[in-house]
Please model this.
Amino acid sequence: MSSPTADGRTPAAPTRADRGSAAAAVGWSPLRPRDVPGVAWTAACDGVPPGVRGFPRAVLAAWCWPARVALLGPGWYHRDGRRTTVSLARTPVLAAGVVVVLALVLFLHLARRDLLPPGLVAAVMVANLGVWSYALSVAVLQWARNRAERTPEERRGLFRTPTPLHTTWWLGRIALRDPGADRRQALAAAAALVRAVTAPGETVGAAAKSDRQQRELEAEGFAEPRGHKGLVVYPPPAD
Model:
C-alpha cells in the first residue's frame, strides 16, 4: 500500500484495484459475482453451531444460505477455494437490514393512508411475517454459534457490551466452511489481509466474542482502546 510522501503530504487513498492487488499478494481474492454462491455457503456453514455435524449441519447451512447471500456485499474476500472468507466493511451496520426496515416503514405509511389494495396489504404483511420469522431463526443459530465461542465461566459472567468504536474498516467474522479447519491460522491470514489493504491513517476494528478471541486478535497486532471492552483496533491506538 501507499506510504506518506517525502514532503509529509497525505497520499491519495488506494483504489479498489489497489486493494485487490494488495489482497492477492497475501493470498486473498476480492468477492466477484461468480464467487457469491460459494462464499455464501461458507458463511452459512460457519453460522451453524459447532456441535452440529454431518447431514443436520448441511440442512441448517442450506436453510441459512439465502440469508447469507442477501448479506454479501463489497469488502468481502475469500481464499482456499472460497472455503475461508472474511469481510472488511466500512461499518458494522447491516445495510440490507436498514433497507428492509425503511421499505417496511414506507409500506406501512402507504397502507395507513389507504393507498394500497387491502388484498395486497394482507399478502405483504403475511410475507413480512415469514421473512422476519426466517431472519429470527438465522439469528438464533448465529447466537448459538457465538455462544459456543465462550467458556462456561464467561457465559455465567457479564455480557460483553462494548461501547461504540469508530474505525475506517470493520473486520467481520472469519468464516470457515470446514468445521475442523485451523481457525488460528485463518485469523493470521486475515490479519495479513488487514495489514495489506489498509492505507496509512486507516484503522480496522474487530469484535471479540470471547476472551480467547481477544487474546488471539491482540497477538496479531490489534489492541483494546481504553473503555471499549470486547472491541479491538488495528493499529493500536496511542494512549
Notes: The mean pLDDT is 84.
